[in-house]
Design goal:
By secondary structure, the protein is mainly beta. The chain has helices at residues 42-48, 160-173; strands spanning 16-19, 26-29, 35-39, 53-59, 63-66, 68-69, 76-77, 82-86, 90-95, 101-106, 112-116, 134-136, 153-154.
């Protein structure tokens, strides 16, 4: 849902905002989160320092990184403070300053991007509450973390449809 601004300024199309812990990364999205996935893979666990990370999926075209003022200057910086971390199947980004996980995009699905849900400014959601839609990589979930019965889908790895998409992409990439 867009902001209630009466004019057609860019801010009237913003569905939510967010940023990292230190403020070096700020973003807006013109689309509300479509899904909320809890991922228990070892990479997400290590990057988050927790038993899982929550990813809010949005169309990648709706994400806009914003210039921010540096601590030493009042003028906005056009340099992105994100550091990419690539793997064979995805590129993640973390803040160069504080290390907050910010985004993740699978190479086989460039139309969508995951935003680390903890970076979303909750008040910018204007009362919309995100609900978990699936748990993935339960095969890598730490034994010390119990998941309550929440009625959402659970997968040992990826959901079936995505697993197939990934396999087709990997085959095409050689």
């Amino acid at each position: 849902m867009a902001s209630n601004n009466a004019d057609n300024s860019p801010s009237s199309n913003i569905a939510f905002t967010g940023g990292c812990q230190c403020g070096s990364v700020r973003y807006t999205s013109t689309s509300p989160p479509q899904n909320l996935t809890y991922c228990y893979c070892i990479t997400c666990r290590r990057l988050s320092g927790s038993s899982f990370i929550a990813w809010a999926d949005i169309p990648s075209s709706s994400l806009q990184l914003l210039p921010v003022s540096s601590k030493d200057s009042e003028s906005p910086s056009t340099n992105c403070a994100l550091k990419p971390l690539s793997s064979p199947i995805a590129t993640r980004s973390v803040c160069k300053g504080c290390g907050s996980s910010v985004t993740m995009m699978y190479h086989c699905d460039g139309a969508n991007i995951g935003i680390a849900a903890g970076t979303i400014d909750e008040d910018s959601l204007e009362g919309r509450v995100m609900q978990v839609t699936e748990h993935i990589f339960l095969g890598q979930k730490p034994g010390w973390h119990a998941i309550s019965e929440d009625g959402v889908k659970r997968w040992e790895r990826f959901p079936d449809g995505f697993e197939k998409k990934l396999q087709e992409w990997e085959k095409a990439e050689g």
